[in-house]
Every structure is written in structure tokens, then in C-alpha cells.
Known about the structure:
The structure is a homodimer. By secondary structure, the first copy, chain A, is mostly helical. Chain A contains nine helices and no strands. Chain A is elongated. Chain A starts with 8 loop residues before the first helix and ends in an 8-residue tail after the last helix. The A-B interface holds A 22-24, 26-27, 101, 103, 107-108, 110-112, 114, 116, 125, 128-129, 156, 159-160, 162-168, 170-171, 173-174, 180, 184, 187, 190-193 and B 22-24, 26-27, 101, 103, 107-108, 110-112, 114, 116, 125, 128-129, 156, 159-160, 162-168, 170-171, 173-174, 180, 184, 187, 190-193. Chain B binds a DNA duplex through helix 3.
Amino acid sequence: xxxxxxxxxxxxxxxxxxxxxxxxxxxxxxxxxxxxxxxRPGSIYAEFGSKDGVFKASLEHYAELxxxxxxxxxxxxxxxxxxxxxxxxxxVIDSQNEAPSCMxxxxxxxxxxxxxxxxxxxxxxxxxxxxxxxxxxxIVEAQKKKEIGKSKDPQELAxxxxxxxxGLRVYAKTSDDNGPLEKMIDELxxxxxxx
Amino acid sequence: xxxxxxxxxxxxxxxxxxxxxxxxxxxxxxxxxxxxxxxRPGSIYAEFGSKDGVFKASLEHYAELxxxxxxxxxxxxxxxxxxxxxxxxxxVIDSQNEAPSCMxxxxxxxxxxxxxxxxxxxxxxxxxxxxxxxxxxxIVEAQKKKEIGKSKDPQELAxxxxxxxxGLRVYAKTSDDNGPLEKMIDELxxxxxxx
DNA sequence: GATATATTTGAACAATCGCTCAATTATTTT
DNA sequence: AAAATAATTGAGCGATTGTTCAAATATATC
Lengths: 195, 195
């Protein structure tokens, strides 16, 4: 009795994410978005409600992407610390060539938005916290495998990693020499607060 | 033969800086700016040429503000390391209550802008590098005073500090508990790569 | 094939964007 | 006081913003 053929929602969100990730919230217009996801305004507003709705879906998709990648690295590696190090190298180094922006989209959003967009800001903050919690979980696992001393507080170490990643990614955008960054990542787990 | 009474350029730039610092480049409109600095479009364009011109002047003023603050802290303190630590505590902790944004305006700009604004991006990057160089200079001084081992590379330590500050300031925006951050700052100079 | 209905389209809305410039105002020199 | 000129004003430019909705289209049911 009705028409069912719809666009590929997942593909649409992926394209929207790539555009928002590159340009940020304010610099991305609905017309930019329409072109990037190949949908007319009516369809976008029927599916997402507003520009904010698309951005929110993008933030959630981006966070899911990161968490999935971390899981995959954990499966591929025999060591939780190696998985963490691989993740950090990927987001800090590899993302410079492959990703829409070398910045973390969540950190970029937290940096860009003010309390004028409380919900979007909250989504970004919560997503960052989710990633941090996943870090902590891997650190607990590493402690069980004696890769990290059991006296350390996993949440504290996870927070430390988040801070390092954010700092490193912003710095990566200011510099074209990855040498020092790779060295810093390699040494991350060899000193305080990990050792 | 002519009219000379002009607005206070320094005050105008200061007001513009505070607005741009809070809202970022794209979210700040020329009308927002007109209200904040109490000037009509004609005067603004006569003095700064464009929205980008005002932003550039703001970036430069912001950088100057930071460098001056660092100098003042150095004069007030007998120790270069104490000056550095004081600077970091101020920008990470105190700025949450006092400043237009707890974010570093330069890092925020680097995070927000793309190659669509190459000149503004370059100004922000260069300003960050200037601050980093100032850090390095204080570290050299600290080495002379035996506060830091002379085998350490000042530029490497300065870069490390920049990365820590950026990471800490973004994290501060996601969290309302400063305890862990203050502890991290206090311990910054007690471990690798400083010791 | 006709009907019903969900989906998709794209022109167009009011508001706002960065910016221009003729007109007005204020100050200095004569 | 008059003339000269720089500074300031603010209405308004064309373009773009986020969003709406009547019309057109495509699919499922009968």
C-alpha cells in the first residue's frame, strides 16, 4: 500500500560524518550536506529532523567507528597494550593521510561548540567518556596479563591516554614532522604514569 | 585639516578577541562583532578590511597576551620551572572561570579551520610555535640553574609541554573535576621526559 | 491496471551572512 | 565662522543560511 524504497541510511550517515568531521559543525551548511549525501532537504528533514539531528547521528556514528576499531585491534593483537598503542598510532599518524581530518571529531566538536548547543556538546562529551572507559577496560585486561602494574588506577591511566591523544592530534595538525610524535607514542607506556 | 578622534584600537581588538575566543571563527558573525566592539561596519572594514582581518588581529593579540603572561610569571618567580608550572595551571585551571573559553584560542583555531583559510591557519600555527619557543627558552634557563638535566633537548621538552596543555585544556572542557588535572600538572616535571 | 500511500523533489520562505558606500558627523585649519 | 577633510553611520546590497511544504514520483496492495 505504500512506497518503501528508501536511501541507504548507513551510507548517508557515513557521508555526513565525513563532511562534518572535515569542516566542523558551523562551517558545514545544509547545502554542503545535501550535496555530500545526495538527498534533497525534504528527505533529510524527514529522516533527521534538523541540521543538529544529522550532526548528532554523525557524532554517534563516529564514536561507534572508533570503538569498533579499538575492538578489532584488540582481536588482532595478543596484547591489550599493543592494541592501545596501535590505536593511538592510527589516530595520530595514519589519520593524517586517510581521514577527513587529522583531528578527533569528538575533540573538535568539544572545542568548537559552546553551551548554545548543549545537547550536541553532551553527545560529544559522553562519546569521549565511552572511549575512555574502553581504554580503562583494556588497561584492566593488561593488568591481569601483568603488562601493567596492578597498583595503577585504570581510569587514571585511561584519562592520561585521552589527554595524550588529544594533544598529539592537535599538534600533528601544526607540524609536518611525525618523527617526534611517533617517538612519544612509542615511549608512552614505558614511563610514568604507566611505569 | 582633518578629524582625528578614533576609537580605541586596542580596546576594540580586546573585545573582538574575547568574542572570537568564546565562539570561534565560523560561529562569530560580523553583526555579533559589531555589537561586541560597538563599531559600525564601515569603521570595522576601514580598520581591518574584512572579518578575517579582525580575526587575524585577534589571534595576534591573543598570542601576545600569552607571551606577556609567561614573561610576567617568569619575573614574579625565581624559578623558570615554577613559571612554566604556574602558566600551565593558569591556562588549564584558572581559565575555566575567568576566560571567554577554557580552550586555547590558538588550538581551537587550528582545530576548527581547514585549508580554506590558509592564512588564518598559518597565523595560529606560527603563534603556537612562538609560545613553544618561549617554553624552550625557559627550559634552557632551567638547565642553567640545574632544575632540569642538561642532557635534555629543550625543544623536545617544550613540544611535550604544548601537547600536555592542549590535551589538558580540551579534557577540562569535558569534565568538571579539576582534581586529576591539577595532580597531572604538579607531576608534569617530576617524570619523563623531564627526569 | 487502478488505487492508496509513503517517499522524494525542489522551488521558495524569512532570516541572516559578509560587505559596500553615499550621506552624515566631528574635528582641524584657515 | 567658514572651509576642508577624515571618521563614522546605517540602510541596504546580493548571496547564503536552515527550513518548509505542495507537487511529483514510485511502490505495495487490491
